[in-house]
Amino acid sequence: MEHTKYTGIFPAFYACYDDNQDVSLSRVRALARFLVDKGVQGLYVNGSSGECIYLEKEERMAILEAVMEEVGGQCTVIAHVACNNTRSSMELAAHAEKLGVDAIASIPPIYFHLPEYAIKEYWNSISSAAPHTDFFLYNIPQLAGVALTPSLFLEMLKNPRVVGVKNSSLSAYDIETFLRLGEGRITVFNGPDEQFVAGRTTGAAGGIGGTYAAMPELFLKMDQLIRENHVSEAALIQHEVNAIIEDLCSLRGNMYAVIKKVIELNGGPSLGGVRSPLPQLSREDMPKAEAVASRIRQTVKRFV
Asked: What pLDDT digit, counting tens, does each position of 132-178 carry?
């Protein structure tokens, strides 16, 4: 079964703040409009790139409401609803379904390493709170501390609402594994931005990524080239994108603080900084931020 609305480029949506690190809903709406106008196929809201672990449940609800008010029905919206307790996660899932999102998603609980049957119960409880909404499993073992194993995946396939995986593990082989075990029922999104081309050519239907919003034109172009079977040309862009990502990660400030400034420098909306304890962009970062913003503009001009 082909889930056509779960294909293409889905920027991971950033938290947007005012100068006091309070959520700015006007900036949330501005970012949503900016990305949809760029032509992305969907948005992934309140995930890792959205600083979800630093947000209150009510803030996450307000962000999702603002996104849906601004662009709901104009693109596919997947809401990440995981908290580190089941009750709050279920409340976020029910709220997301009420707003009419296309799907919800969840990482496994973090910190305590739970047995697979407990993770399964956690995910199925979340899904039960949004019984009419598609559900994506989020596999990011390097941060969550636990991997989506084939055995856990097969157990989760017993839930008919499970339609796919956001796979952010560092092995493209995992994408092939989930597709093979899913037997045509499952959509997989590539997670690591640095392996977008590898993930797509392995079988991922699209990508969800934390740097997409900084350079959506480049990811949209790679996706187009892959669909047109021009993989070698897409790989050339991937090489340039990876160098840009290395630059984004090389500053003193947190990568998302850098990206938000880069978006602004390249004519996009002002999105504020990041929430403490993430390190803010420093004054000494500005020349490097301006350089990477320029590099993105030059790369877009070269390839798009």
From this structure: 999 999 999 998 889 999 999 999 999 999 999 999 998 889 999 99
List, in sequence order, every residue forming a beta bridge with 207; answer none if it has no partner. Answer: 9, 190
Residue 1: per-residue pLDDT: 39
Give pTM, 2 decimals: 0.97
What is residue 53's three-state secondary structure?
helix
- Report d(CA 192, CA 199) in Å as an integer: 8
166 in active site: yes
Three-class secondary structure of residue 87 per DSSP: helix
Give catalytic status of residue 212 as yes or no: no
Residues 169, 175, 178: CA angle, nearest 5 degrees? 110
Cβ neighbour number for residue 260 with a 10 Å cutoff: 29
Report the distance separating Cα 189 and Cα 203, nearest Å. Answer: 9
Q: Class assignment of domain 8-215?
A: alpha beta
Token digits of residue 19: 């100068």
CB 36 within 8 A of CB 260: no
Q: How far apart are CA 192 and CA 202, in angstroms?
A: 13
Region 66-83: mean pLDDT is 98
Q: Helix, strand, or coil here: 160?
A: coil
> What token pair was written down for 301?
């001009």
For residues 27 and 47, give the distance between their C-alpha atoms in angstroms, rounded to a whole number: 17
| Whether the predicted pLDDT of 91 surpasses 90 | yes
CA 112-193-102 angle, 5° bins: 75
Question: Which of the residues 6, 17, 122, 166 is marked catalytic?
Answer: 166
The single residue of 6, 14, 138, 212 carrying the catalytic annotation is: 138
Give Cα 59 distance to the centre of its chain.
18
Q: Is 105 helix (H, G, I), strand (E, B) or coil?
A: strand
pLDDT tens string 209-236? 999 999 999 999 999 999 999 999 999 9
